[in-house]
Design a protein that fits this description.
Elements: E1 8-13, H1 18-29, E2 34-41, H2 45-55, E3 59-62, H3 68-74, E4 80-83, H4 84-92, E5 99-102, H5 110-118, E6 122-125, H6 128-145, E7 149-151, H7 154-163, E8 171-178, H8 196-199, H9 209-217, H10 219-231, E9 239-243, E10 249-255, E11 260-264, H11 270-278, H12 292-295, H13 310-320, H14 324-340, H15 346-359, H16 368-386
Parallel strand pairs: 1-2, 1-5, 2-3, 3-4, 5-6, 6-7, 8-9
Antiparallel strand pairs: 8-10, 10-11
Helix pairs in contact: 2-3, 4-5, 5-6, 6-10, 6-14, 9-14, 10-13, 14-15, 14-16, 15-16
The protein binds magnesium ion.
Length: 387
């Protein structure tokens, strides 16, 4: 924990993606409280170069080694540049870093997350894969090292704010809110006709393509149920979902006395990102406050469990645990990519995931290698099912 008079030193892994860019907006908004000390991107050379120059960081990482030379020409010679997984780990363990924000899509964030924890850093997690695939491993490592895993996702950040470190014994239900996606009201019979362009239109949040499709299938909420289970050390039976189309209530906690706490704000990822960074403090910013009178109403409805099988598949994966969540996640990633290439129908996404989950051999207490192996196996199985 840094002295409150100096800004928190933050490494951002995945800085040119949607969450990464929002985190840099936060850094611009609260410069006295957040200092960016390391930046890593996948292959966006120009984007990363301009970020490195703007924030004057001394360490950068371009995951794709083929762009490293082009990047080096665009930044000052004093900047140390890394590449690949080793490079991500180098940044995740920088001695001056207080917090490592992991916003890398996919499995690539997993080892850097564990390396950061091992080095005694708090981590802020935006990558779903970390808690979905290896939630048990990551949370156990964090407890052993006495570091915090701070959620960036709006739902988990909301629950984190409502819980205020209360034990899960006090909780009767975590209630994740879901926008319901663009097909919330579409009759079940028409889901088969859904096209890519329709699925990419999210009603309330501006996000990357993969997560927008996941919001339309409700796999996003399913993955979040699994994340919540590990993050807040609570079994799947106490993780619930409610559809809330306005996305103003970001999630809720119902306690054993049936009292409920909710966290609300306008829909801007800068809110949860900022809280993950400034926690345990609250810091003034320039974000738009919520105007209740202008909102007039907030709606809630039960999710359509039968029409959107992603929720039940996630419940099964989260309850059974072991390698099953990793298999579900990997098969979904492959299926979404195929849908985006227009090679798979919309219901084909969950059909592929279900078939893959039923095929791959299940391992109960997997180590990191077994998890990564299950991920690879599920990917090739899903590809085979699609082709
Ligand atoms: Mg979310």
């Amino acid at each position: 924990m840094p002295h409150p008079d100096r800004p928190k030193n933050v490494v951002v892994l995945g800085s040119t993606g949607s969450i990464g860019e929002s985190s840099l907006k936060v850094a611009r908004d609260i410069p006295g409280r957040m200092k960016v000390v390391g930046l890593a991107a996948n292959r966006s050379i120009d984007g990363l170069a301009s970020q490195i120059n703007e924030f004057e960081v001394q360490q950068g990482c371009l995951y794709d080694p083929t762009g490293l030379e082009a990047l080096s020409i665009q930044v000052s010679p004093g900047v140390t540049l890394h590449t690949g997984e080793e490079g991500l780990i180098e940044l995740a363990t920088m001695p001056e870093a207080d917090l490592v924000l992991i916003a890398i899509v996919g499995v690539a964030g997993l080892r850097p997350a564990l390396a950061a924890i091992e080095a005694g850093k708090d981590i802020a997690v935006a990558s779903k894969e970390i808690l979905v695939m290896a939630g048990e491993t990551v949370m156990k490592a964090a407890r052993e090292k006495g570091v915090r895993v701070l959620p960036v996702d709006s739902e988990h950040n909301a629950i984190f704010q409502c819980l205020e470190d209360r034990s899960s014994e006090d909780v009767s239900r975590l209630i994740l809110t879901a926008s319901g996606g663009p097909f919330r009201e579409l009759p079940a019979g028409q889901l088969a006709e859904v096209k890519k362009a329709q699925a990419l239109k999210h009603p309330t949040w501006e996000m990357g393509q993969k997560i927008t499709i996941d919001s339309a299938t409700l796999f996003n909420k399913g993955l979040e149920m699994i994340e919540a289970r590990w993050l807040f050390d609570i079994e799947m039976a106490r993780v619930d979902v409610i559809v809330h189309p306005q996305s103003i209530v970001h999630s809720m906690v119902e306690f054993i006395d049936s009292s409920i706490l909710a966290q609300l704000s306008t829909t801007d990822m800068c809110f949860p990102i900022q809280y993950a960074i400034t926690w345990p403090e609250r810091v003034p910013n320039t974000l738009a406050p919520l105007d209740f009178a202008a909102l007039a109403r907030l709606d809630f409805e039960a999710p359509r469990w039968d029409d959107f099988p992603a929720l039940n598949l996630a419940k099964e994966a989260g309850t059974k645990g072991g390698t099953l969540p990793a298999v579900m996640n990997a098969a979904n990633e492959v299926a979404v990519a195929a849908f985006l290439r227009e090679e798979l129908s919309f219901p084909g996404i969950w059909e592929t995931v279900e078939k893959t989950m039923n095929t791959i051999a299940w391992i109960e207490n997997p180590g990191l290698d077994a998890i990564i192996n299950a991920d690879l196996e599920a990917r090739s199985k899903a590809k085979e099912l699609i082709s």
